[in-house]
Each structure stands twice: as structure tokens, then as C-alpha cells.
């Protein structure tokens, strides 16, 4: 639920006298790993993409989930994609407050997510590349049996092909909780291999920062969303303006 329990920094960590498992030896302890997803709305005169909800999930499922009031007035809720409505803003917290809470959860952690550069941009934050695990750019995921490899695959397709679960299928837009949980499940699927490779992969000269050309606006294209959310569906485009937000 929104405003749920925030995971403590030491939540789920192993006792100091216990030997690490092979999985732990291959990478960060579960308590040092979180997944994040944000939902966006359009704000200001130019409809700038801004964060309106953020969910952070720990390795073991503890949840931070809050609606966020953007710094500029909301002009397009993008409900069709974001699931955000005017009513959600009644219990939203200011961006500056949310930013401080969220960054406290992210700093010093391995952060998992899909197209993370969009979430970090919305948070006005730069996370260390060595501690970033973006499911958009993982060869171990893209090479899994049954998945047709291409440069980028949507979270929805990864979930269907690799986790055998359907996400983003409702009439009310996305759920950042569902997407964050799914990203963590994908991470855990190839965690050992990923962590074994990460230390050398991210330092290679040919390794590139996430392609900023694949930004929020492009990700709003219909190819990434449920077919039942097409034009004229009951999901609709959502509310478009709230000068008071």
C-alpha cells in the first residue's frame, strides 16, 4: 500500500558470524540491493516529464511506495500509462521530501530497475554505474532461452518470457510496485552470473552509459503498453490538467 513500510538499511542482513553463501560471495548481500520504479506525469507549460509516484522494493520485498507532488503544476496525468489521477495527489508528498527519502534508500545500494536512467533523471540523481543493474542492458537476460535477442526488450516482454507472468495488463495504467518487484525478480534470476561479470563489464572502455535517446517520451509509445489500453479504450488518456497540483 502507499506509504508502506520502509526497509531499514540493515533489514535482512546476515549475522556477522555466518559464512556467506555462494550467492552472497558472488555479489552484494541482499540487504544492499533494492529495485526502483517511478511513474511519470506531464508538468509545466511544456508538459515536462516529472515523477508522481515512486516504489522501492528491497531484495526480500519490503516496500517504500508513495505518491509525489511535482514541483510544477500537473498538466497531463498520463493516466493511460502512469495510473496517476487527481485523487492520488491528495495524499502526495512534496518532491523535495520524497527525493530525500528515496535517495536515502538508494545511496550505497545496488539499484535494480528497467531503463533506470529515466528514474534517476526524474529524481535528479546520478547513481554509480558500478552499483547499477539495469534489466534493459543485461546479456544474461537477453540470452535466456525463448527470448528473441534484440538491443532492448520491454519489461513486459521480459516478465512474460522469463518469469512467465503477465504485467501491465490492467485498464488503469502501470503500477510502479509491480514493475519494481518484477525487476527484482529478473535480477534474482541471473544474479550470480550478473554479479560475477559486473565488476569487469562496467569498467570496459566499450561499456557505455545508458542511451539517453531512449527517454521517457519514447518509452510512452504504445509498443510498450497493453493492447487493451489503445485509443478509445475505457482506460482513456486520463485527466489532463490540474493547475493546483
UniProtKB/TrEMBL annotation:
Q: Which UniProt keywords apply?
A: Exonuclease, Hydrolase, Nuclease, Nucleus
First-listed, main subcellular location of the protein, grouped into a coarse class: nucleus
Return the GO cellular component terms, semicolon-separated: nuclear membrane; nucleolus; nucleoplasm
Residue stretches making up the Exonuclease domain: 32-196
Q: Is tRNA-binding included in the keywords of this UniProt record?
A: no
- Any one GO molecular-function label of the UniProt entry: nucleic acid binding
Q: Where is this region: Disordered?
A: 1-27, 203-245
Q: Where in the cell is it found?
A: Nucleus, Nucleolus
Q: Which GO terms describe its biological process?
A: intrinsic apoptotic signaling pathway in response to DNA damage by p53 class mediator; response to ionizing radiation
PANTHER family for the chain: APOPTOSIS-ENHANCING NUCLEASE, RNA EXONUCLEASE REXO1 / RECO3 FAMILY MEMBER-RELATED
What protein does this entry describe?
Apoptosis enhancing nuclease
